[in-house]
Design a protein that fits this description.
Elements: E1 5-10, H1 18-29, E2 34-39, H2 47-57, E3 66-70, E4 81-86, E5 89-94, H3 100-105, E6 110-113, H4 129-143, E7 166-172, E8 175-190, E9 196-201, H5 202-209, E10 213-218, E11 221-223, E12 238-242, E13 247-252, H6 257-261, E14 268-274
Parallel strand pairs: 1-2, 1-3, 3-5
Antiparallel strand pairs: 4-5, 4-6, 7-8, 8-9, 8-14, 9-13, 10-11, 10-14, 12-13
Helix pairs in contact: 1-4
Length: 275
C-alpha cells in the first residue's frame, strides 16, 4: 500500500517554527505520511495568492494526496474550518476562500465543517489552528478515516470574488464607424521572476484575438509582441506570453516586468482589437 502524501501550503515562512510544528503534529499521528512543501512563502494573510497557488498545483500531485492549506487572517474567529473531497484529492483549510478556486474548477463530492473535536488536538490555540485543528484533520485522513467523520456536511462555502476580464466596444481612431473592442483584464499575481500573471486565459485571448489585429498595454506601457517563449523577445524587451498556468503574462526577457513597468497585482492589462 502506498504511503499517504500530505502537501502543505501556508503563509508561515520558514524562519519560525510554525510550519515545522504542523509537520510534527502530522507525523506524530501518521508516521507513514510523506510530507511535501508546496510553499510557505505566501505573503502574510494573502488568501487570494494562496488560492491561486493551490489551484495552479494540486492537479499535478498523485491522486489521493491530502492538501492542508493555511492562510488564515481570521484565525480564532467565527470563520469555519473545512475539509473537502474533489477530483480525487482531499483538502483541509479555513473556510475563507482559500479553497474556492479549486472547488470552482473541481466541484466537491463531499465537504464538511471541522466540528468533530476528537480529530483535533486536545487544546486548540486561538492563534494556531493550523497546528491544532487543520494538521490533525489531515493526518487522520491519511490514517484512513472518512472525510465525513470530521464533521457535519457543508452545502456552501466562502467564495473569493475573483475579477473577470471584461469586453466592451469603444470608438475607434477613425470615429464611430471604426470597430474597436477592448478586453480589460487585471494582474492577479506577480511571480518570483517578476512576471505579471493576468486573469486572461489562453482560450479567451485566442477567441478575442482571432477576429483582428491587437495592441496590448499594461498600465500605461505598450507591450511588445505575443511570443511562445521568453527567449523569442529581444533581451530586456517587454513581451506577452502564456505561462505554465495558461494565463497571459507580461514579462521582460532576462528581467523583471514588475520592476521594469512599476506594476503589481491589480494593474490593468488591456487588449485592443481592431476589426
Amino acid at each position: 500500500m502506498a504511503r499517504p502524501t500530505i502537501a502543505l501550503l501556508t503563509d508561515f515562512g520558514t524562519r519560525d517554527h510554525y510550519a515545522g510544528a504542523m509537520k510534527g503534529v502530522i507525523l506524530s499521528l501518521c508516521p507513514d505520511a510523506t510530507l511535501v512543501d508546496i510553499t510557505h512563502d505566501i505573503a502574510p494573510h494573502d488568501v487570494l495568492s494562496g488560492a491561486l497557488e493551490l489551484a495552479a498545483v494540486y492537479k499535478y500531485f498523485p491522486q489521493g494526496t491530502i492538501f492542508v492549506a493555511v492562510v488564515d487572517p481570521g484565525v480564532g474567529s467565527a470563520r469555519r474550518g473545512m475539509a473537502a473531497e474533489a477530483a480525487g484529492y482531499r483538502f483541509v483549510a479555513p473556510d475563507n476562500g482559500l479553497l474556492s478556486l479549486v472547488l470552482r474548477e473541481s466541484p466537491p463530492r463531499k465537504a464538511v465543517e471541522l466540528t468533530e473535536r476528537r480529530y483535533a488536538r486536545p487544546t486548540v490555540s486561538r492563534t494556531f489552528e493550523g497546528r491544532d485543528r487543520f494538521a490533525p484533520a489531515a493526518a487522520w485522513l491519511a490514517k484512513g478515516i472518512e472525510l465525513t467523520a470530521l464533521g457535519r456536511a457543508m452545502q456552501a462555502w466562502h467564495q473569493l470574488d475573483l475579477p473577470q476580464p471584461v469586453v466592451a466596444r469603444r470608438p475607434g481612431p477613425s470615429g464611430p464607424g471604426s470597430n474597436v473592442e477592448e478586453m480589460s483584464g487585471e494582474v492577479l499575481r506577480v511571480d518570483r521572476f517578476g512576471n505579471l500573471v493576468t486573469n486572461i486565459d489562453r482560450a479567451l485571448f485566442e477567441r478575442f484575438a482571432a477576429a483582428g489585429a491587437i495592441d496590448i498595454t499594461a498600465g500605461m506601457h505598450t507591450v511588445g509582441k505575443v511570443v511562445a517563449t521568453y527567449a523569442e523577445a529581444e533581451p530586456g524587451a517587454v513581451c506577452a506570453l502564456f505561462g505554465s498556468s495558461d494565463h497571459l503574462e507580461i514579462a521582460v526577457n532576462g528581467g523583471n516586468a514588475a520592476d521594469t513597468l512599476a506594476l503589481t497585482r491589480g494593474a490593468r492589462v488591456k487588449i485592443l482589437r481592431f476589426c
